[in-house]
């Protein structure tokens, strides 16, 4: 899973950003990207917790932060190296950050 997040310290390189539509098209065509989408703004999120048996519902993200998950892509890559190369070409690698995380229980 690749979480797409904004970042308070984006890259300052003035080179043009990669085209997100080209990134999606290339990875869809190669069978590496299974699905993905943008998420609604963090301000409309609802955080649900249970503490001491009590339901706690908070509007917005749990933590006050300028960084938030803004989207996701479900990738199928041969290994972490391939996933890193896929993430490296995503525009948010420069403007935000990408977190790669395997599923906990994978068939080996």
Automatic annotation (TrEMBL):
<dbReference type="InterPro" id="IPR011008">
    <property type="entry name" value="Dimeric_a/b-barrel"/>
</dbReference>
<dbReference type="Pfam" id="PF03795">
    <property type="entry name" value="YCII"/>
</dbReference>
<protein>
    <submittedName>
        <fullName>YCII-related domain-containing protein</fullName>
    </submittedName>
</protein>
<dbReference type="InterPro" id="IPR005545">
    <property type="entry name" value="YCII"/>
</dbReference>
<comment type="similarity">
    <text>Belongs to the YciI family.</text>
</comment>
<feature type="domain" description="YCII-related">
    <location>
        <begin position="11"/>
        <end position="101"/>
    </location>
</feature>
């Amino acid at each position: 899973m690749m979480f797409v997040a904004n970042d308070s310290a984006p890259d300052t390189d003035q080179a043009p950003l990669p085209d997100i539509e080209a990134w999606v098209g290339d990875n869809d065509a190669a069978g590496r990207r299974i699905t993905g989408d943008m998420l609604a703004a963090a301000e409309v999120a609802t955080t649900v917790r249970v503490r001491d048996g009590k339901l706690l519902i908070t509007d917005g993200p749990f933590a006050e932060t300028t960084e938030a998950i803004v989207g996701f892509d479900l990738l199928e890559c041969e290994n972490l190296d391939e996933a890193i190369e896929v993430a490296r070409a995503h525009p948010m690698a420069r403007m935000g950050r990408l977190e790669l995380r395997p599923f906990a229980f994978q068939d080996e």
